[in-house]
């Protein structure tokens, strides 16, 4: 990856690298990780290990462990963060961002799965809002003075069909700070803007790197060993099903018999005129195989700071759960700092795009507050609420609003709900009511 003197040179070099074996191999491996995460045709990755007639007797056994572990370790966007503009929330700005929290939660998970990736910030003309897309297959040109600084991006345009009988020409989208256009495999350029100019003057992409990055641009993510373990467990589970299937032993007949007259079954009697019927018992220890599979699952979970006990342990307190997940929480702190920088880089791109598309200036003062992770402890929570109510810090209205925030948009709705409950139960008037009529009635 080298610095380019002109855009034409950059295009030629980027397209050539797209066809190189190493890059193609990396993209193929990423597709495998995505297949395991989406649980999409993962049988293909273990099919070659089971030949002969085995698959005629039992199907391949596959599981979806990859998604469960990746989602578990992706904790930055577990709850929606609070974004502040000039030290306050701004719903008008937030409304211009199309499903941003949902998209970035997905981006975090995909990043943990594959490693180095891009987030493309773009303008959705139909919705007239900002949109956020993950980019996994792409080629970059880097600044030789800063090998982690991206100077241009080339990525394949997504095809509109998966039909193998319908072929579409490979097309690529090129971005640099100065230019933006589409190009095909024959180097034919199609204009997307006047004079192929990038209207924003910056690359509308943010690179997300794993925490372990040193000096290489492309790096693998957490999903590398998770998908490999998933593959090994699928192989082991298929072998386990085979041994369970053959636990009754292999039937055999000794002597001269007519095999067409032999019918086996639990409720059938086999009569042989000239021969013996027997079985060869399978001595495989199925329990040992199951313990081996459990060990594989626990080992991969331990590698990613996840406590896993198959639900054997009794109910644990919030403090005990927090101590068990201490390493996971410490790893999250590193991820929070990383995505705080990502959010600020995204904000700079949002400023440029909104300035061009809507003539709107976003404030330079931007910050993001990621929610803290807390583990449930019913006794501690009850004691906390008792103390708050006793000292007048919070009341019943605060309690029902906090535990059902989607139901009550404001305090008045919560009070009306509590009034209705009190009337239905024939109790005294709600002491938390703030209706004017009730206030006047209490006035001497």
Question: Keyphrases for this structure?
Answer:
alpha+beta, three-stranded antiparallel sheet, 14 helices, disordered C terminus, 12 strands
Word description of this protein:
The protein is α+β, with helices and mostly antiparallel strands and 444 residues long. Among the domains are: 7-222 and 330-352, no CATH class; 380-441, no CATH class. The protein is 42% helix and 16% strand. The chain is flat. It starts with 6 loop residues before the first helix and ends with a helix.
Counting DSSP E segments of at least 2 residues, the number of strands comes to 12
Largest sheet: 5 strands, antiparallel
The separation of the N and C termini measures: 83 Å
Structural class, from helix and strand content? alpha+beta
Compute the average pLDDT: 82
Going across the major beta sheet, what is the strand order?
4-5-6-7-8
Question: What are the secondary-structure elements, in order, as H or E?
Answer: HHHHEHHEEEEEEEEHEEHHHEHHHH
Radius of gyration: 31 Å
Helix run count? 14
Name the shape in a single word.
flat
How much strand content do the residues show?
Answer: 15-25%
Tell me which oligomeric state these chains represent: single chain
Low-confidence stretches: 436-444
| Helical content (DSSP H or I, runs of 4+) | 40-55%
List the helices and strands and how they pair.
Elements lengths: L6 H12 L2 H18 L15 H4 L7 H9 L8 E4 L5 H4 L5 H15 L2 E8 L4 E7 L3 E5 L2 E11 L14 E6 L3 E5 L4 E3 L13 E4 L14 H23 L4 E6 L19 E6 L5 H18 L14 H7 L1 H33 L7 E4 L8 H13 L5 H8 L7 H15 L10 H6 L3
Antiparallel strand pairs: 1-12, 2-3, 2-9, 4-5, 5-6, 6-7, 7-8, 10-11
Helix pairs in contact: 2-4, 2-7, 4-7, 7-8, 12-13
